[in-house]
Amino acid sequence: MARKPTARSEFVMFDVVYEDGSQRSNRKVDASLLGGLDGDDPARTAIMDQDRAISEKSGIPPLAIKSIKRSAK
């Protein structure tokens, strides 16, 4: 039996540096959020939302983001 084709989601990977100096690499952000006049600014909001969800599950407060940049390919 053939499978139904699924919609492919394109992601852009980001490196995130937090205020405490720690770094997380290759954080996924949906490419449809990026571009336009805002550029990569929506990525910060998406990553903050991801951090908030992770902190709710772990019970550890989220860290403040110092900077984000696209991961090197």
> What structural category arises from helix and sheet content?
alpha+beta
Mean pLDDT: 89
Stretches with pLDDT under 50, minimum 5 residues: none
Tally of individual helices: 1
Give the strand order, joined by hyphens, for the main sheet: 2-1-3
Query: Rg, please?
Result: 15 Å
Shape: globular
Order of helices and strands: EEHE
Question: How many extended strands?
Answer: 3
* Strand proportion: 25-35%
Distance between the termini: 37 Å
Helix content: 10-25%
Q: Tell me about the biggest sheet?
A: 3 strands, antiparallel
What does this structure look like?
This protein is of the alpha+beta class. It is 25% helix and 30% strand. The chain contains 1 helix and 3 strands, in the order ββαβ. The protein has one helix at residues 41-58; strands at 11-18, 23-30, 65-70. It has a 3-stranded antiparallel beta sheet with strand order 2-1-3, covered by helices on one side. A hairpin with a 4-residue loop joins strand 1 and strand 2. The longest helix is centred in the C-terminal third of the chain and has 18 residues, at 41-58. The radius of gyration is 15 Å and the shape is globular.
List keywords for this structure.
73 residues, three-stranded antiparallel beta sheet, 25% helix
How do the helices and strands line up, and which of them pair or pack?
Elements: E1 11-18, E2 23-30, H1 41-58, E3 65-70
Antiparallel strand pairs: 1-2, 1-3
